[in-house]
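Entry:
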Amino acid sequence: MKDSPNIRIKVPSFISSRQNAWFFQRLGEPVEFRADQLIAMPGMYPQYCYFLKTGRVIAGIVSSANRQRLMLSFEDGSLLLEQYQLTGKPCDLYYRAVSPCTAQMISYHDLTQAMKADFSVTLDVLNAISDLGAMSLAQRMFETSADATMKICSQFLDFALAFGEEEDGEIVITEKLTQDKIGALSGLHRVTVSKELKTLRELGLVRMVDGYYRISSLAALMDYCDEHSRRTESES
């Protein structure tokens, strides 16, 4: 796939403690979260951070209109809540398991001792925290500069790279996406999401089969986004 500065073709919200995943899998105590279980909430001071071994956790905010706004998504091999635990600051997001999860529950003492004993562990923790900052900045810049079409295209490209499987010449997104979920991820109203999805379907770029979206061609979707971006820039 070609690169485009207007489209996030990578998924920066999947934060992984890369080099020492094997180490974090043994640090602390095993714990499980059921689907839809709340792990942390704004104002809470976490006593533990977690290394996610299986499952998915999302973090977000709830607006004054009681609408959920997703900010982060954590997959297997992710470290979460460490930034609050290490700095002693309260959470500013809701953290919730969206599927059954297994994780390692790591205390402040265990984490700091591991960081003291092995500098590579320290670097991995710093990488996880810096990923959060970089992702938040990239997301904010994208939200302020992109229009609805670009945001929807970005979401489909993100999910295609994270959950896409090739089948019969198309890319099947194996994660079920609803209009509400797409709206929460992109910060768009449901009516706007519906309008943009209708356009993509009419152009033959995406279709839904048995509850799963299928992208006819990533290259065609990228070309559509690039053309839209050029047209928008020329009109501004």
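The longest strand covers residues 48-54.
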